[in-house]
Design goal:
By secondary structure, this protein is of the alpha/beta class. The chain folds into 2 domains: 131 residues, Rossmann fold (3-Layer(aba) Sandwich); 177 residues, Rossmann fold (3-Layer(aba) Sandwich). 33% of the residues lie in helices and 16% in strands. Strand 7, helix 6 and strand 8 form a beta-alpha-beta unit. Helix 1 runs parallel beside helix 4, helix 5 packs across helix 8 and helix 6 crosses helix 7.
């Protein structure tokens, strides 16, 4: 739906700030695309943490990345102010990024209506609304300033050389391209949100029986999981841990990604890779883009969140059965990979 343009001069320089986790940065790339479409002559920079900055390389809508976590906040704020931004869109809205936004001198400063930070913003969006897909929720920040937004997915860009290197990494790990490759990510970084290892072990022969090639990514947090899985499945293809851009290339060479609710699931969306995501705790509605090639499988523990102001009390991880079975995951994969 088209919305009226903001009652301010069109911006010449815009800064988006999202310095957090890889999944959050990936989701926020959609705002860069919306701003680039609305203001094709403007420079759209992205303030990001150093670890996640490689995600944004080669993105056609992003002019420059600005590292916002490598120095004291006052020093970053001074550097941002020197760039003379017309708009700052603070998706993070943390204490640090609110300070940077406030000190930027930008006439338009957009962020969340958060206690002790709202004074930093000229346009504020409340989070006291019904839950929705997080990517859509963040785009509402732009509509505060009259920017038309779309339903397009987040986007990450890869060069042809990076895609070829990723495919080669899978072949070198023993995952040939004779059959569709299904990437398996064993951990979300939080054990209580992980699908059980024994389920991954049971899934591997099921995938092979369906004419698919499973391949495991050795990712941060999976050190204690790879060896036990290989003990159960000795001939399993495992891609060694790669730099972030290398991982993106290897992920792009998969037909489907199977994982828990974690950042690489959003990277798959941004690379056009269908995914099966197993939600052990979080409600899938907030993390699955409507209409995308995603199958969300939720355990009994993935109950809807309560109001944002009240933190949900979760029972211990062993208080519930892991009710997403390997057979259900196989069925989901087969809906995404035509026979």
């Amino acid at each position: 739906m088209s919305l009226p343009r903001p009652r301010v001069p069109p911006p010449r320089r815009i800064l988006i700030i999202q310095k957090g986790k890889f999944g959050d940065v990936t989701l926020s790339t959609a705002l860069a695309d919306d701003l680039h479409r609305a203001f094709p002559g403007a420079a759209v920079d992205f303030g990001v943490g150093a670890a996640a900055a490689p995600l944004l390389e080669h993105h056609p809508a992003i002019t420059e990345t600005v590292i916002v976590d490598a120095a004291p906040a006052w020093r970053v704020a001074a550097a941002v102010r020197a760039r003379r931004y017309d708009w700052v869109v603070d998706v993070q809205s943390s204490a640090r990024t609110a300070l940077i936004t406030l000190c930027s001198g930008a006439p338009v400063r957009i962020g969340w209506d958060v206690r002790f930070r709202r004074a930093a913003y000229t346009h504020r969006l409340t989070r006291d609304r019904p839950p929705e897909y997080t990517g859509h929720e963040r785009r509402r920040l732009l509509t505060l300033a009259g920017v038309p937004v779309s339903d397009s997915l987040p986007r990450l860009a890869l060069t042809a050389a990076e895609r070829e290197a990723g495919a080669r990494a899978l072949r070198d790990a023993g995952a040939s391209d004779a059959h569709p490759r299904v990437g398996l990510l064993l951990t979300t970084g939080a054990a209580r949100r992980d699908w059980p290892l024994e389920h991954f072990a049971a899934l591997v022969p099921l995938l092979r029986g369906a004419g698919l090639t499973p391949v495991v990514f050795d990712a941060p947090g999976s050190d204690a999981l790879i060896a036990p899985l290989r003990a159960r499945v000795p001939d399993l293809a495992v891609v060694p841990r790669l730099p972030l851009r290398g991982f993106l290339g290897a992920l792009a060479a998969c037909r489907v990604l199977v994982s828990g609710d974690t950042g690489p699931a959003h990277m798959a969306d941004a690379l056009g890779v269908p995914r099966v995501t197993i939600f052990e705790l979080a409600p899938p509605e907030q993390w699955v883009p409507p209409g995308a090639p995603v199958v969300a499988l939720a355990s009994a523990r993935a109950v809807p969140d309560r109001a944002p102001a009240r933190r949900r009390e979760l029972a211990p991880a062993d208080a519930y059965p892991a009710d997403v079975s390997p057979a259900r995951v196989l069925e989901a994969v087969r809906t995404l990979v035509p026979a």
